Amino acid sequence: MPTVINPDAVPKSLVSELIRPSQVHGSLYTDPAIFAEELTKIWFKTWVFVGHESEVPEPNDYVRKQMATQDVVMTRDRDGDIHLLINRCAHRGLQVCDDQKGNSSSFRCPYHGWTYRNSGELLGYPYNKGYGGKGRLELGMGKVPRVESYRGFVFGSMADDGPSLLEHLGAATGEIDRLAGLSPKGEVSLDAGWLPHKTRANWKFLAENETDGYHPQFVHGSIFGVTGSPIGALYSDASTAVTRALGNGHSENDLRPEFRKFAEPMRWFGTTPERVPNYVAAMREAYGEDAERRMIEGAPHVMIFPNLFIAEIQVFNIQPNAANECISYATAVQLRGGAELNRRMISQSIGSVGPAGMLLADDTEMYERNQQGVSMLDPEWLDVRRGLVRETTDEDGFTIGAATDETGMRGFWKQYRALMEA
Ligand code: FES
Ligand SMILES: [Fe+2]
């Protein structure tokens, strides 16, 4: 007899009643059962940013990474292919790779000495007669089944099939292209080292905040004041910048209208062509007339769902540990062929998102207070309606709002809901 599926018997996602067009429920940030559901439906399914190819430049290089709750090793094998191995021995489950990074064609488990190739296959096991001889075990390290890169940015998906990386990235590819297009060689590297910041807050507070243009004037007012930074004005009521939902949960603060108004190359970086003459010359050499446009418009400010945030000159990788804890890894963008800028990018990044980074400390304080606040019972809902009344559609069909609108957040929740209800 054919199996009859009763739709009422299929368990409904926990989130269905918790997301409204202009409100989200506080329990989305605190409930361990929802976090468990997110792991299976988002983090172990969609494309997750893991790292950058420039972190493993040579054959047999490896570096440890986090994919949500999973400890993975990003390796480059002898043929140059990138793998993401789950750091767990196929024998008794021990963590196989202990060093944070290095160069090795194989890994040896410290417990009983099983060895694995850096592409995950089992190479050997001691005293093999106990298993009936050599080559009898069809075991290996677990592997993230799908690994793909876009312009060196490495993503993994724990699902065997589903949309391709390009389908997932959609319009966000253009933002990564914009960043790479600021390098005279058309390439960025993310090899300056990642600083991990543990935050006692739900990962979604970080993802939502990354294109929230409503908060900078208030949260970062003191640092803007001390440094005389013009950033605050980019996110004021008078700003011509827009917030754009790019589809698939991605969103950006498009600051280009503001920079085009001034039409000054390198203003986006707070400098002038005279102060970085070699970089400007290399850009003109590489891109001809288009170099001016690139240097005026600057770098993107884009949140790529669920965990890659390109904040002009820094990149963040957000990884959740639990409903109330995540780690945000930050690094300075390095532009190939942009030595003059690269040094400055590192020192500016140390000041803003380093161990005592001022911007990061400001934001983290908000995330953690937010987390504490949502465990209070009343009112139950958070409000995300800002700008809903004035949203429009741009010429490419994307939803746009003003610089301070919550358009990006609503785009995030749309994708979140689609994945959780799938
Ligand atoms: S647990 Fe790894 S070799 Fe035994
Ligand atoms: Fe901020």
UniProtKB/TrEMBL annotation:
- A Pfam match: Ring_hydroxyl_A
The kind of enzyme this is, by top-level EC class, is ligase
Gene3D superfamilies for the chain: Naphthalene 1,2-dioxygenase Alpha Subunit, Chain A, domain 1, Rieske [2Fe-2S] iron-sulphur domain
Q: What is its EC number?
A: 6.2.1.-
Record carries keyword Phosphoprotein: no
User: Listed GO molecular functions?
Assistant: 2 iron, 2 sulfur cluster binding; dioxygenase activity; iron ion binding; ligase activity; monooxygenase activity; oxidoreductase activity, acting on paired donors, with incorporation or reduction of molecular oxygen
Q: Which SUPFAM superfamilies match?
A: Bet v1-like, ISP domain
The chain positions of domain Rieske read 47-130
Which keywords does this Swiss-Prot/TrEMBL entry list? 2Fe-2S, Dioxygenase, Iron, Iron-sulfur, Ligase, Metal-binding, NAD, Oxidoreductase
Superkingdom to which the source organism belongs: Bacteria
Q: What family does this belong to? A: Belongs to the bacterial ring-hydroxylating dioxygenase alpha subunit family.
| Name the UniProt record assigns to this protein | Fatty-acyl-CoA synthase
Organism, by scientific name, is: Gordonia humi
- Name the lineage: Bacteria, Bacillati, Actinomycetota, Actinomycetes, Mycobacteriales
